[in-house]
Task: structure prediction
Amino acid sequence: MNPHETPQPETPFTEPWQARIFALTVALNEAGHFAWADWAAVFGRHLKDTKDGAGDYWRAWAAALEEMLASQGAAGGADVAALAERWQAAAHATPHGKPILLENAGPAPEA
Amino acid sequence: MPHDHHDHDNHLDPMDARTRALETILTRKGLVDPAAVDEIIETYAEKVGPRNGAQVVARAWDEPDFADWLKRDATAAIASMGFSGRQGEHMRAVFNTPRLHNLVVCTLCSCYPWPVLGLPPVWYKSPAYRSRAVIEPRAVLREFGLELPGDVAVRVWDSTAELRYLVIPERPAGTESMSREELAALVTRESMIGTGLAKVPA
Result:
């Protein structure tokens, strides 16, 4: 909580995925997929289990969004996990300095 | 994927891979537009921040009519300066006085007035601040270096998804001849949350 722990100026995101998960949530809210009050209730529940730290905060954020999307049937946990593995494979197949594209993982196993 | 010469040792953080997967699914289903996601990141990583709120405070110090408007209808008064939208739909301005100090927290999560302050600092989101600001506000303020006299009451406002607060700190003495820009430079982010005061001119 010490305000002097963080250097100024402080950026809201310390890793790109944090910005991404934040913006996905705002975009979904704006497109009408859930109300912000409903989001805050789910997120607040996930935050209860966190300790101090920006990383914990954004991990709780991501877990809350995954829970909301799974309960709405928009993105199931197993699908997310399978696709995350494909992204990891794509990263391994992409040379340093080149953008990581999902196609780099090779042909999709299904469809 | 066989471990062959195609492996370039790029490795994604598991959270990174999961977030990419989520975005891929949402994009394929047409639920989000990646360009809109990019625009949101650019806005909050670079454009919106506490300098907006500082302009609101400086104007309130400078224009009694504007301060009155802020007290009556903060949402409209702030929107008139071009600061509106996400998480600023319902704003309330709370004014510090010589007898009252206001402090803002979100005990549930991290509700915060984005249009005027940008995204919250790490400490605002921390479990310690969220729980202790309500229970022992004076101790929390001391940790921020703010020792309030005993005759100053502390009022804690708990933000919600519906209502966001902006603290209007007291105008420092010795600033009577300052321009609006000079005044705004005295207004810190902490002073608009209540964990600090406006800077005193050197």
